[in-house]
Design goal:
single chain; mainly beta; Immunoglobulin-like; Nuclear Transport Factor 2, Chain: A; 6-stranded mixed sheet; globular
Length: 849
């Protein structure tokens, strides 16, 4: 008994001593000035390229070692000497060595590599001279990676393209561009450029935010603004050909407006053509954006000034009582406490005394995920990191803004192996952090979740195309089709992002299911009989949906659409109207087929909730149209807001998350406009239409060039088809055209091998062609002739079952082989355009590499 009492007393003493010891030694974590820090200043060197006497292409450094063929920035035209110079502004680094690699864009195979350790020096600038030794193809793009190595063995990577020409007339083109630019900055010289302009009475001359070749001379020369340029102007060559070039000028300027200095970002885009006797200005565009400045707020009107802008999007979230507001402007995140009239710059790469060229480099963006009642914000920064500990990295970073302490804390760091231009296309619209600290995001065409507490990463779905997934942001759900292949799709998954629960809408027996879109917070999908899915001649699938349904996330059907004899082939949602593209069945038995039918419409009665903040325009003589951001109704700004800044929290744990990802199997197409990706598309025709309108180039995700604006020859004939003999093959015209295409490539196949009735012309080319086939359905005849200009014949459908082969053209006619008659035929451009349009503009060709 006594021993037991002693044991109890000893245990109590040990317990009390332990409490005292651990209570004294376990410290509460309090964030103060000792474990927070300011973001590090920008440091990476900038480099430019010199070819001949021309200094071009300002390049920013990466600390991410990306594949050279993933970065499609500016291009350097080189001549047969194959030499160019790299001009390095060292900044605070001591550059000791430069490594370079030249690679194929398609396949990324190495062409040449070498190192340079002897530089020419002048002040803070070092020059490396590169002379390539490898045989390069004329007019072919190659990817170049330049690696700077410092005295401390630090590495920085720069990316560039090169293109070989005997003479690209770069000097003449750049001289013209820079003289034009000088003229618009000086009204005394401006009369000299009037011969190149095409002023139109239909042009909008009310805003400096966007001007083009059709604008008035007064608008092109800045009206009454009188701006001053702040940064050096270095031409960026974004596309180059022997006679034409596309060149950008990116710079910042300032101007005094109503007694206050304002800063603007400007991009000029020139497309020029060289001729021995003169230069031609084919296109001119200028974009101008005010840099957001709280100090320009209008107190009397209770408005924040947006200034000169064409971007009226205002991404924002508000607190429950609508007295707190978070918004993104110019890639900066702001928090506005409306009740206290305090505004916090939550995240920005802009320094107090900015280095405009590096601080405001625009290859990143910010997305607000949520804001709680206290004003704490979860947000995501993605893309190229301009400065700070991740300077030069491409990444997705999840941050939390702790309002009470005016600090931001890094939650997740996800390094990415592709540049911002590709990342923004693959990232998608899914980014959500739920109340259980689970972060959902999309990257590499996959859906992931990461638990911030357990550090568990999960890949929820892979190979999810952009038309295969919908995010219902208002109710925090994500919906995706089980597989991209509609012929195998049996369910649509519905995930509650708050709970992680996944439900599904299953296809009926004997049917497949297809996700079509969304309206409000409802899902639009349809059912198709398994036997009704068919492959079209161009290889695309016709999916005639017999029933369309609109349902909520609880799978309750709100609307069902089914009309006898009609099938839905696709939809388009505009505002509150769903347009149904329809087809109807023709023929009987094995001869059945579908033809287009008149569209139908479903009108949604839901009313949109009015926005909490809006933009309002004002017009002055000096700055013309400017915009202001209105505050919520009832909020009055009695004085200028107090501006606060944040600090970064120093964290002890490594926040790095590395998602595994599978290779993308679906083809997608990128429209490059003015050097940047405007958008990505599931089919080539949409990308070509965007590049045609934007004066650009289309590439696929294998880096193959699909189409280029403005380089089609005025006439061309593939002479081989002029000397071949032809036999009439009525009833097998498609097979005949395929056989001729393959014979032109040097591939011999029999007619029996080319049977397309149980396959498609696209699949036949995919199987036998030396080169990748490309489906061009939906483009115009004029756009299709680009392929003939490049020496590749084009199969063109003239009806449901018949085709001709286009092998030549001039200004007025096209040259075709007509297998139905076994003859070569000259057809008028206008008549043939109408004929091909009537057949659905179905074209098929192949790529050159």
């Amino acid at each position: 008994m006594l021993k037991q009492l002693y044991r109890i007393i000893i245990l109590i003493i040990v317990f009390v001593a332990s409490l005292y010891y651990f209570g004294r030694n376990i410290k509460e974590v309090v964030f103060n000035i000792d474990n927070t820090t300011e973001m590090e200043e920008v440091s990476f060197p900038l480099i430019t390229i010199k070819t001949g006497d021309n200094r071009i292409n300002l390049l920013h450094g990466y600390s991410s070692n990306l594949d050279a063929n993933k970065v499609r920035e500016t291009v350097v035209p080189i001549n047969q000497e194959k030499a160019f110079e790299v001009l390095i502004n060292e900044e605070n680094y001591d550059i000791k060595k430069l490594n370079y690699e030249v690679r194929e864009f398609v396949g990324n195979s190495l062409v040449e590599s070498d190192s340079i350790s002897v530089f020419e020096e002048a002040g803070e600038q070092k020059t490396a001279k590169i002379k390539l030794q490898s045989q390069l193809e004329v007019e072919k793009e190659y990817a170049v990676k330049l690696t700077l190595i410092t005295s401390k063995s630090e590495k920085m990577y720069y990316y560039q393209r090169i293109k070989l020409y005997d003479n690209a007339h770069l000097k003449e083109k750049l001289d013209f561009v820079l003289q034009f630019h000088d003229s618009i900055m000086d009204k005394a010289k401006a009369e000299g450029i009037t011969r190149y302009l095409e002023p139109s009475g239909d042009a909008d001359n009310s805003s400096l935010a966007y001007v083009n070749i059709n604008s008035s001379l007064e608008l092109i020369t800045w009206g009454k603004l009188n701006p001053t340029i702040l940064t050096e102007i270095i031409p960026g060559v974004v596309e180059i050909y022997e006679d034409t070039a596309s060149v950008t000028l990116d710079y910042f300027l300032e101007a005094e407006v109503a007694g206050q200095m304002e800063i603007y970002r400007v991009r000029e885009f020139y497309r020029v053509r060289y001729a021995p006797d003169r230069m031609y200005l084919l296109n001119y565009e200028r974009h101008m954006e005010s840099i957001f400045d709280i100090g320009l707020a209008s107190v009397s009107q209770s408005e924040l000034k947006l200034g000169i802008t064409a971007d009226l999007s205002l991404p924002y979230v508000s607190g429950g009582d609508k007295t707190k507001l978070a918004f993104v402007r110019n890639r900066e995140l702001w928090f506005y406490d409306l009740a206290g009239n305090e505004i916090t710059k939550v995240f920005s790469f802009r320094q107090e005394k900015p280095d405009y060229t590096r601080d405001l480099y625009d290859q990143h963006n910010i997305r607000i995920l949520n804001m709680d009642a206290e004003g704490n914000i979860d947000f995501m920064v993605y893309g190229y990191m301009n400065r700070g500990q991740y300077e030069g990295k491409v990444a997705i970073i999840l941050y939390r803004f702790v309002r009470a302490e005016s600090r931001i804390e890094e939650q997740v760091y996800i390094p990415v192996d592709e540049p911002y231009q590709l990342l923004k296309e693959s990232l998608g619209s899914l980014s959500y952090l739920n109340s259980n600290e689970v972060f959902y995001f999309q990257a590499y065409h996959s859906i992931y979740s990461f638990n911030l507490i357990t550090k568990e990463l999960e890949q929820i779905a892979s190979n999810v195309g952009q038309d295969q997934m919908m995010v219902l942001e208002d109710i925090n759900y994500v919906v995706w089709q089980e597989t991209a292949d509609v012929s195998k799709s049996k369910q649509i998954n519905i995930m509650d992002l708050e709970t992680g629960r996944i439900d599904a809408i299953a296809a009926k027996t004997g049917y497949n299911i297809r996700l079509l879109g969304m309206i409000d917070s409802n899902i639009i999908y349809g059912y198709v009989k398994e036997g009704d899915i068919s492959s079209m001649i161009d290889g695309s699938l016709l999916v005639p949906l017999s029933t369309l349904e609109i349902a909520d996330v609880d799978k309750e059907v709100r609307k069902s659409y089914n009309k006898e004899g009609y099938y839905v082939s696709g939809i388009e949602v505009k505002n509150n109207i769903i347009e149904l593209r329809r087809v109807k069945r023709q023929g009987e038995g094995t001869g059945e087929y579908f033809i287009p039918a008149a569209p139908d419409y479903i009108i949604n009665q839901e009313n949109e909730e009015p926005a909490l903040i809006n933009s309002r325009s004002r017009v002055t003589d000096q700055a013309l149209t400017e915009y202001y951001m209105t505050l919520p109704s009832g909020v009055a700004m009695e004085k200028m807001p107090k501006v606060l800044a944040t600090v970064n929290t120093v964290i002890s744990e490594d926040p790095t998350v590395r998602p595994t990802h599978t290779e993308q199997t679906r083809l997608c197409y990128y429209a490059y406009i003015e050097g940047d990706i405007k958008d990505s598309y599931e089919n080539a025709a949409e990308a070509i239409a965007a590049a045609r309108d934007g004066i650009g180039v289309v590439l696929n995700n294998s880096n193959q060039i699909i189409w280029e604006r403005g380089i089609k020859l005025s006439k061309n004939t593939i002479s081989r088809f002029e000397t071949m003999s032809y036999q009439a093959t009525p009833g097998a015209t498609v097979e005949n055209c395929l056989q001729q295409i393959l014979a032109y490539q040097g591939v011999t196949v029999t007619r029996d091998q080319l049977e397309v009735k149980n396959s498609s012309a696209y699949e036949v080319l995919k199987k036998y062609s030396k080169y990748a086939p490309v489906r061009l359905t939906g483009i115009t005849l004029d756009d299709a002739l680009y392929y003939v200009s490049k020496g590749r014949p084009v199969l063109a459908m003239t009806g449901r079952e018949d085709a001709v082969l286009i092998y030549g053209y001039d200004t007025f006619n096209i040259l075709v082989v007509n297998p139905a008659t076994g003859s070569r035929v000259k057809m008028g451009i206008q008549d043939s355009t109408q004929m091909f349009e009537g057949a659905g503009n179905i074209f098929l060709s192949y790529l050159g590499q």
